[in-house]
Write a structure and sequence with these properties.
Blueprint lengths: L4 H9 L2 E5 L3 H13 L3 E6 L16 H5 L4 H12 L4 E6 L20 E4 L4 H14 L3 E7 L2 E7 L6 H4 L19 H19 L7 E6 L5 E5 L24 E4 L4 E4 L9 H8 L4 E4 L3 E8 L2 E8 L4 E4 L4 H11 L3
Parallel strand pairs: 1-2, 1-4, 2-3, 4-5
Antiparallel strand pairs: 5-6, 6-7, 7-8, 9-10, 10-14, 11-12, 12-13, 13-14
Zinc ion binds next to helix 6.
Length: 332
Protein backbone atom coordinates (compact mmCIF):
# COMPACT_ATOMS: atom_id res chain seq x y z
CA UNK A 1 0.00 0.00 0.00
CA UNK A 2 1.61 3.31 -1.07
CA UNK A 3 1.88 5.65 1.90
CA UNK A 4 2.45 2.84 4.40
CA UNK A 5 5.30 0.46 3.44
CA UNK A 6 7.70 -0.92 6.04
CA UNK A 7 8.31 2.48 7.65
CA UNK A 8 4.58 3.08 7.97
CA UNK A 9 4.01 -0.41 9.36
CA UNK A 10 6.64 0.23 12.03
CA UNK A 11 4.95 3.51 12.94
CA UNK A 12 1.60 1.75 13.17
CA UNK A 13 3.23 -0.87 15.41
CA UNK A 14 4.46 1.90 17.74
CA UNK A 15 1.00 3.47 17.94
CA UNK A 16 -1.36 3.54 20.91
CA UNK A 17 -5.11 3.88 20.40
CA UNK A 18 -7.59 4.26 23.24
CA UNK A 19 -11.03 3.03 22.24
CA UNK A 20 -13.69 4.51 24.47
CA UNK A 21 -16.78 2.33 24.34
CA UNK A 22 -16.57 -1.20 22.99
CA UNK A 23 -20.08 -1.50 21.63
CA UNK A 24 -20.86 -1.68 17.91
CA UNK A 25 -18.42 1.01 16.77
CA UNK A 26 -15.71 0.20 19.28
CA UNK A 27 -15.73 -3.51 18.32
CA UNK A 28 -15.49 -2.74 14.61
CA UNK A 29 -12.73 -0.15 14.89
CA UNK A 30 -10.78 -2.24 17.43
CA UNK A 31 -10.79 -5.22 15.06
CA UNK A 32 -9.54 -3.09 12.14
CA UNK A 33 -6.75 -1.55 14.22
CA UNK A 34 -5.75 -4.88 15.77
CA UNK A 35 -5.49 -6.52 12.35
CA UNK A 36 -3.53 -3.49 11.06
CA UNK A 37 -1.06 -4.08 13.89
CA UNK A 38 -1.53 -0.97 16.05
CA UNK A 39 0.87 -1.89 18.86
CA UNK A 40 -1.19 -0.98 21.91
CA UNK A 41 -4.96 -0.91 22.17
CA UNK A 42 -6.60 0.31 25.36
CA UNK A 43 -10.25 -0.74 25.55
CA UNK A 44 -12.75 0.87 27.90
CA UNK A 45 -16.34 -0.14 28.38
CA UNK A 46 -18.81 -0.05 31.26
CA UNK A 47 -21.34 -2.62 30.06
CA UNK A 48 -21.71 -6.40 29.73
CA UNK A 49 -22.56 -8.32 26.55
CA UNK A 50 -26.27 -8.81 25.87
CA UNK A 51 -27.93 -11.02 23.25
CA UNK A 52 -29.43 -7.93 21.54
CA UNK A 53 -25.87 -6.63 20.84
CA UNK A 54 -24.89 -9.44 18.49
CA UNK A 55 -26.57 -8.00 15.38
CA UNK A 56 -23.86 -5.30 15.19
CA UNK A 57 -21.13 -5.87 17.82
CA UNK A 58 -18.74 -8.00 15.82
CA UNK A 59 -16.35 -9.24 18.54
CA UNK A 60 -18.99 -10.98 20.68
CA UNK A 61 -20.66 -14.39 20.64
CA UNK A 62 -23.79 -15.98 22.09
CA UNK A 63 -21.61 -17.51 24.84
CA UNK A 64 -20.41 -14.02 25.87
CA UNK A 65 -24.02 -12.89 26.12
CA UNK A 66 -25.09 -15.96 28.11
CA UNK A 67 -22.24 -15.38 30.58
CA UNK A 68 -22.79 -11.59 30.64
CA UNK A 69 -19.05 -11.08 30.07
CA UNK A 70 -17.95 -7.43 30.40
CA UNK A 71 -17.55 -6.08 26.85
CA UNK A 72 -13.98 -4.85 27.38
CA UNK A 73 -12.90 -8.36 28.45
CA UNK A 74 -14.78 -10.26 25.75
CA UNK A 75 -13.34 -7.89 23.12
CA UNK A 76 -9.78 -8.17 24.43
CA UNK A 77 -9.93 -12.01 24.37
CA UNK A 78 -11.10 -11.97 20.78
CA UNK A 79 -8.47 -9.40 19.72
CA UNK A 80 -5.69 -11.37 21.41
CA UNK A 81 -6.81 -14.42 19.39
CA UNK A 82 -6.74 -12.31 16.20
CA UNK A 83 -3.29 -10.77 16.75
CA UNK A 84 -1.03 -12.04 19.54
CA UNK A 85 1.74 -9.57 18.69
CA UNK A 86 -0.06 -6.48 20.02
CA UNK A 87 -0.82 -5.40 23.59
CA UNK A 88 -4.50 -5.13 24.48
CA UNK A 89 -5.37 -3.44 27.79
CA UNK A 90 -9.02 -3.92 28.78
CA UNK A 91 -10.70 -1.79 31.45
CA UNK A 92 -14.19 -2.53 32.73
CA UNK A 93 -14.99 1.03 33.69
CA UNK A 94 -17.17 4.03 33.01
CA UNK A 95 -14.88 6.59 31.36
CA UNK A 96 -15.90 9.90 32.91
CA UNK A 97 -14.66 13.20 34.33
CA UNK A 98 -13.97 11.30 37.58
CA UNK A 99 -11.38 8.88 36.23
CA UNK A 100 -10.28 9.71 32.65
CA UNK A 101 -6.69 10.56 33.65
CA UNK A 102 -6.22 7.01 35.02
CA UNK A 103 -6.41 5.59 31.49
CA UNK A 104 -4.13 8.02 29.65
CA UNK A 105 -0.33 7.94 29.62
CA UNK A 106 1.39 10.74 31.60
CA UNK A 107 1.28 14.14 29.83
CA UNK A 108 5.02 13.96 28.99
CA UNK A 109 4.57 10.67 27.06
CA UNK A 110 3.54 10.33 23.39
CA UNK A 111 -0.11 11.32 23.04
CA UNK A 112 -2.38 8.37 22.26
CA UNK A 113 -5.15 8.46 19.64
CA UNK A 114 -8.66 8.75 21.08
CA UNK A 115 -11.23 6.68 19.19
CA UNK A 116 -14.87 7.44 19.82
CA UNK A 117 -16.94 4.30 20.35
CA UNK A 118 -19.40 6.02 22.68
CA UNK A 119 -23.14 6.38 22.38
CA UNK A 120 -23.57 9.64 24.28
CA UNK A 121 -22.68 13.30 23.92
CA UNK A 122 -21.51 13.71 27.51
CA UNK A 123 -18.51 11.46 26.85
CA UNK A 124 -17.85 12.95 23.40
CA UNK A 125 -17.50 16.47 24.83
CA UNK A 126 -15.25 15.09 27.56
CA UNK A 127 -13.09 13.40 24.89
CA UNK A 128 -12.89 16.67 22.96
CA UNK A 129 -11.69 18.54 26.08
CA UNK A 130 -9.08 15.82 26.76
CA UNK A 131 -7.90 15.86 23.14
CA UNK A 132 -7.38 19.64 23.12
CA UNK A 133 -5.68 19.85 26.55
CA UNK A 134 -3.46 16.81 25.96
CA UNK A 135 -2.69 17.35 22.25
CA UNK A 136 -4.31 14.03 21.22
CA UNK A 137 -6.12 13.38 17.96
CA UNK A 138 -9.81 12.64 18.52
CA UNK A 139 -11.64 10.49 15.97
CA UNK A 140 -15.33 11.23 16.30
CA UNK A 141 -17.89 8.73 15.01
CA UNK A 142 -21.62 8.37 15.42
CA UNK A 143 -24.09 5.94 13.90
CA UNK A 144 -27.85 6.09 13.82
CA UNK A 145 -30.06 3.90 11.63
CA UNK A 146 -28.28 3.69 8.25
CA UNK A 147 -26.19 6.87 8.70
CA UNK A 148 -22.55 6.99 9.70
CA UNK A 149 -20.93 10.31 10.69
CA UNK A 150 -17.21 10.65 11.22
CA UNK A 151 -14.65 13.42 11.66
CA UNK A 152 -10.96 13.39 12.54
CA UNK A 153 -9.97 16.23 14.89
CA UNK A 154 -6.21 16.56 14.97
CA UNK A 155 -4.09 18.87 17.17
CA UNK A 156 -4.09 22.45 15.90
CA UNK A 157 -7.15 21.88 13.67
CA UNK A 158 -10.83 22.44 14.40
CA UNK A 159 -12.38 20.63 17.38
CA UNK A 160 -15.83 19.15 17.99
CA UNK A 161 -17.02 22.37 19.66
CA UNK A 162 -15.99 24.48 16.64
CA UNK A 163 -18.87 22.72 14.86
CA UNK A 164 -21.26 21.89 17.68
CA UNK A 165 -20.50 24.39 20.49
CA UNK A 166 -22.83 22.66 22.96
CA UNK A 167 -24.20 19.14 23.38
CA UNK A 168 -27.78 18.68 22.15
CA UNK A 169 -30.46 18.92 24.84
CA UNK A 170 -31.32 15.51 26.31
CA UNK A 171 -34.05 13.71 24.38
CA UNK A 172 -33.69 15.81 21.18
CA UNK A 173 -31.53 13.31 19.30
CA UNK A 174 -32.51 9.80 18.23
CA UNK A 175 -30.62 7.11 20.13
CA UNK A 176 -29.89 3.48 19.28
CA UNK A 177 -32.84 2.61 21.57
CA UNK A 178 -35.34 4.85 19.80
CA UNK A 179 -34.12 4.53 16.21
CA UNK A 180 -32.02 1.38 15.86
CA UNK A 181 -28.65 0.91 14.21
CA UNK A 182 -27.93 -0.92 10.96
CA UNK A 183 -24.84 -3.14 11.18
CA UNK A 184 -23.34 -2.00 7.83
CA UNK A 185 -23.54 1.68 8.95
CA UNK A 186 -21.39 0.76 11.95
CA UNK A 187 -18.82 -0.86 9.69
CA UNK A 188 -18.77 2.21 7.39
CA UNK A 189 -18.15 4.57 10.31
CA UNK A 190 -15.46 2.29 11.76
CA UNK A 191 -13.74 1.95 8.38
CA UNK A 192 -13.46 5.73 7.92
CA UNK A 193 -12.40 6.20 11.54
CA UNK A 194 -9.73 3.48 11.35
CA UNK A 195 -8.39 4.74 8.01
CA UNK A 196 -8.02 8.27 9.41
CA UNK A 197 -6.25 6.88 12.50
CA UNK A 198 -3.83 4.85 10.35
CA UNK A 199 -3.13 7.90 8.15
CA UNK A 200 -2.20 9.93 11.19
CA UNK A 201 0.00 7.13 12.56
CA UNK A 202 1.99 6.90 9.32
CA UNK A 203 2.59 10.66 9.43
CA UNK A 204 -0.11 12.06 7.14
CA UNK A 205 -2.79 14.54 8.23
CA UNK A 206 -6.38 13.49 7.62
CA UNK A 207 -8.33 16.49 6.24
CA UNK A 208 -10.84 18.13 8.58
CA UNK A 209 -14.10 16.91 7.04
CA UNK A 210 -17.34 15.85 8.62
CA UNK A 211 -18.27 12.84 6.50
CA UNK A 212 -21.93 11.84 6.54
CA UNK A 213 -22.57 8.52 4.80
CA UNK A 214 -25.93 6.86 4.17
CA UNK A 215 -25.13 3.19 3.60
CA UNK A 216 -28.73 2.43 2.54
CA UNK A 217 -28.68 4.79 -0.46
CA UNK A 218 -24.92 5.11 -0.87
CA UNK A 219 -25.09 8.93 -0.62
CA UNK A 220 -22.25 10.77 1.04
CA UNK A 221 -21.86 14.40 2.10
CA UNK A 222 -18.52 15.93 3.06
CA UNK A 223 -18.46 19.19 4.95
CA UNK A 224 -15.11 20.97 5.32
CA UNK A 225 -14.51 22.05 8.90
CA UNK A 226 -12.50 25.01 10.10
CA UNK A 227 -11.45 26.42 13.45
CA UNK A 228 -13.90 28.93 14.86
CA UNK A 229 -12.78 32.09 16.64
CA UNK A 230 -14.51 32.09 19.99
CA UNK A 231 -14.80 28.27 20.15
CA UNK A 232 -15.31 27.64 23.88
CA UNK A 233 -12.78 24.78 23.84
CA UNK A 234 -9.87 25.23 21.41
CA UNK A 235 -9.96 29.05 21.30
CA UNK A 236 -11.25 30.18 24.71
CA UNK A 237 -9.68 27.17 26.46
CA UNK A 238 -12.65 26.49 28.75
CA UNK A 239 -12.52 22.78 29.53
CA UNK A 240 -15.78 22.54 31.41
CA UNK A 241 -16.37 18.83 30.65
CA UNK A 242 -13.16 17.78 32.38
CA UNK A 243 -14.67 18.66 35.73
CA UNK A 244 -18.37 18.25 35.07
CA UNK A 245 -19.96 15.87 37.56
CA UNK A 246 -22.12 13.28 35.85
CA UNK A 247 -25.38 12.09 37.40
CA UNK A 248 -25.11 9.12 39.74
CA UNK A 249 -27.66 7.23 37.65
CA UNK A 250 -27.58 6.95 33.86
CA UNK A 251 -29.52 4.92 31.31
CA UNK A 252 -27.31 2.79 29.06
CA UNK A 253 -28.15 2.61 25.39
CA UNK A 254 -29.06 -0.71 23.80
CA UNK A 255 -30.35 -3.24 26.28
CA UNK A 256 -32.48 -1.28 28.73
CA UNK A 257 -30.12 -1.15 31.67
CA UNK A 258 -29.58 1.49 34.30
CA UNK A 259 -26.19 2.28 35.77
CA UNK A 260 -25.89 3.55 39.33
CA UNK A 261 -22.48 4.78 40.47
CA UNK A 262 -22.62 6.96 43.59
CA UNK A 263 -20.16 9.84 43.67
CA UNK A 264 -18.84 8.65 47.01
CA UNK A 265 -18.63 4.97 45.93
CA UNK A 266 -15.85 2.99 47.56
CA UNK A 267 -13.97 -0.03 46.24
CA UNK A 268 -16.20 -3.05 46.70
CA UNK A 269 -15.20 -6.37 48.22
CA UNK A 270 -17.06 -8.53 45.68
CA UNK A 271 -16.73 -11.92 47.49
CA UNK A 272 -18.05 -10.33 50.70
CA UNK A 273 -21.13 -8.88 48.98
CA UNK A 274 -21.63 -12.23 47.18
CA UNK A 275 -21.72 -14.00 50.54
CA UNK A 276 -24.28 -11.51 51.85
CA UNK A 277 -26.54 -11.85 48.78
CA UNK A 278 -26.48 -15.66 48.43
CA UNK A 279 -29.44 -16.36 50.75
CA UNK A 280 -31.71 -14.16 48.61
CA UNK A 281 -30.27 -14.40 45.08
CA UNK A 282 -28.57 -16.56 42.50
CA UNK A 283 -25.03 -15.13 42.60
CA UNK A 284 -21.94 -15.62 40.45
CA UNK A 285 -18.70 -13.80 41.08
CA UNK A 286 -15.53 -13.30 39.01
CA UNK A 287 -12.46 -11.15 39.69
CA UNK A 288 -14.13 -8.32 37.74
CA UNK A 289 -17.78 -8.46 38.65
CA UNK A 290 -20.58 -9.97 40.63
CA UNK A 291 -23.85 -10.93 39.03
CA UNK A 292 -26.99 -11.45 41.07
CA UNK A 293 -30.42 -12.51 39.89
CA UNK A 294 -32.85 -11.09 42.40
CA UNK A 295 -36.59 -11.06 42.89
CA UNK A 296 -38.05 -8.44 45.17
CA UNK A 297 -40.93 -5.95 45.15
CA UNK A 298 -39.63 -4.67 41.79
CA UNK A 299 -40.10 -8.11 40.22
CA UNK A 300 -37.29 -10.18 38.71
CA UNK A 301 -34.15 -8.20 37.91
CA UNK A 302 -30.45 -8.62 37.53
CA UNK A 303 -27.65 -6.65 39.10
CA UNK A 304 -24.04 -6.60 37.84
CA UNK A 305 -21.72 -5.05 40.40
CA UNK A 306 -18.13 -3.98 39.67
CA UNK A 307 -15.19 -3.51 42.01
CA UNK A 308 -15.21 0.28 41.50
CA UNK A 309 -18.65 0.45 43.13
CA UNK A 310 -20.63 0.71 39.91
CA UNK A 311 -23.81 -1.33 39.48
CA UNK A 312 -25.85 -2.11 36.37
CA UNK A 313 -29.51 -3.06 36.80
CA UNK A 314 -31.57 -4.84 34.20
CA UNK A 315 -35.32 -5.22 34.65
CA UNK A 316 -36.04 -1.76 36.10
CA UNK A 317 -36.54 1.56 34.32
CA UNK A 318 -36.75 4.20 37.08
CA UNK A 319 -33.53 5.85 38.27
CA UNK A 320 -35.08 6.15 41.76
CA UNK A 321 -35.46 2.34 41.84
CA UNK A 322 -31.78 1.93 40.96
CA UNK A 323 -30.82 4.09 43.95
CA UNK A 324 -33.16 2.15 46.27
CA UNK A 325 -31.90 -1.24 45.10
CA UNK A 326 -28.26 -0.14 45.38
CA UNK A 327 -28.81 1.02 48.95
CA UNK A 328 -30.62 -2.23 49.78
CA UNK A 329 -28.19 -4.74 48.27
CA UNK A 330 -24.82 -2.96 48.19
CA UNK A 331 -25.18 -0.42 50.97
CA UNK A 332 -24.63 3.31 50.87
ZN1 LIG B 1 -12.78 24.35 18.72
Amino acid sequence: MPGIGTTGAARIGAGHAIIIGVGALGCAVAELLARAGVGTLTLLDRDVVDLTNLQRQCLFSEADAADRVPKALAASRRLAAINSSIVVRPFVADFSARNWADFLPAPDQTAPLLLDGTDNFETRYLLNDIAVTRGCAYFYAGVIMCRAMTAAFTPGGPCLRCIFPDPPAPGTQPTCDTAGVLGPAVQAAAALQAAAALRLLVGESPEPFLIDTDVWTGEQRRIRLSRQTGCPCCDMRHFEFLSRAADDTTTLCGAGSLQHWPHDARTIDLPLIAQRLRPMAEVTVSPFMLRARLRDTHGPMEMSLFADGRALFRGITEPADARTLYARYVGC
